[in-house]
Amino acid sequence: MISNTDIFMKGTVMEHFILEVNETDVRREREKSRELRKSRWWQNRLALGGCHYCGGSFSPEELTMDHLVPVSRGGKASRNNVVPACKECNSRKKYLLPIEWEEYLAKQDNQPMESSK
Ligand SMILES: [Zn+2]
Description:
The protein is mainly α. The chain has helices spanning 4-18, 23-38, 40-48, 87-95, 98-110; strands spanning 63-67, 82-86. The protein has one domain: DNA Binding (I), subunit A (Orthogonal Bundle). Helix content is 53%, strand content 9%. The longest helix is centred in the first third of the chain and has 16 residues, at 23-38. Bound molecules: zinc ion (ZN).
């Protein structure tokens, strides 16, 4: 049995996450992301070969475009919202809860950096 209070609580949580992102905006930003992926600017980012999250070195084919603020949460397909991420970090980010992801990043920061070659 679901009480009125439960329904009210769920409604509040949903509103918090949706943040007035409509489908048209999402589609437009996804389209822009595709364009951005083809840009010379992005190709240069990939050529640098670093994952934004774990700091590892990868070949351009191993890197994917990640939105710092996901498009589905109102993030934009702009240069300051996209970063190169290795496939592992990308799928981690997708499947972890935001809090677990934060913990993962914190762990990455604490690791001693390998000396740059
Ligand atoms: Zn990574």
